[in-house]
Amino acid sequence: MYSVVYNICTAVSEVPTGYIGDRIGRKNSIITGTILLACQAGLMVAAQEKVWLILLAGLEAVAYTFISGSDSALLYQMLASRKMEDQYLKINSRILAAQSAVMGGAIFIGAQLAQYSWNLPYLLTMLILIVAAGFMCRVKDIMPFAEREKSTGKLIKTLKDNILYRPLGMFLLFFIGISMIDGIACGYYNLNQLILESVGISVSAIGLFFSLSYIGNSFAYLAVSPLNRIFNRSRIIFLALITECLGFLWLSQVQNKGLFFVISLILCFVPEIIFTVADSIIQEWIVERNRATMLSVMSLIRSLCSGVIYGIFGILLEIVTIEQFLIFLAVGFGVSAVSVLIVLRKSR
Questions:
Q1: What residues form the membrane-spanning segments (predicted)?
Q2: Which end of the chain has less neighbouring CB within 10 Å, N or C?
Q3: Which phi and psi (to 5°) does residue 163 adopt?
Q4: Strand-pair partners of 286
Q5: Crossing angle of helices 119-137/88-114, nearest 10°?
Q6: What is this structure's pTM?
Q7: Cβ(237)–Cβ(343) under 8 Å?
Q8: What residues does each domain of the chain span?
Q9: Does domain 159-345 have CATH number 1.20.1250.20?
């Protein structure tokens, strides 16, 4: 029930909070979300009844949507104010790498604290969030109030007013393609426990798998900048998709458990390269005045795609073998590689 309420509240509040972020400023939106998360963590300590836990699930979802969209919009805006937009990919990939590493460490620390008391992780989280909100208050608000007023006199008339890429249909094809890839990758990641168990990998090894995935993601984010110096962004996405396609074909034929484990791990962090590079491309194609709103709309679409694909995967696993399922994923990534390449080659 907690997850159901969380997902519903995320879907309902994603776009409105993105719009609010464009109106009150991305910095203020992030501070609002951080404070709400601190309140949620503190109230989790006091919550005793199930109804309170359900309400707090909604509060957590709303809090995250205040941050979602506004965080990357603020980063791009800060770089644009210094004429450093071309550094967005490099800096954002490093931030994502740090986040992934910190998240992995936080999970470990939280697990240790929970052995003594379930309240300790929430209290520590609340304290850290309060400190984070304080630091955020010191960040200079780059977007002038007059510009915010100008940007939000009307919500969004049409996508054409807010997307710079032409033709608009090609942008939508690119974004929907990336969203579908996101759904495939997330669906596979979420089903990894079932897939790894089906080939005889132990529960302890599966736990190690998910821990290592955070480390792998950090390396994936850090690899983006060096790769961008060697290849252009469209080629990085294409090569990553081809790697996923061939990797799943190989995985469908692997019998050795150790090799299956390693290939599965690689196939989980390669998509992070795709999403980081795609994000930098999309940022360049969005009009500044409604950036947070548009990113929130796109986040909602990605979430819906992930939900639909995850449901399809659940049904597929009941009617096909693991080998056939992995081949199906390979075909999905192969088709995506071709479609994304076509769109990016027509980019101007």
A1: 30-47, 53-74, 95-114, 120-139, 163-181, 201-224, 236-253, 259-278, 299-319, 325-344
A2: C
A3: -115, 125
A4: 163
A5: 150
A6: 0.77
A7: no
A8: 2-83+116-151, 159-345
A9: yes
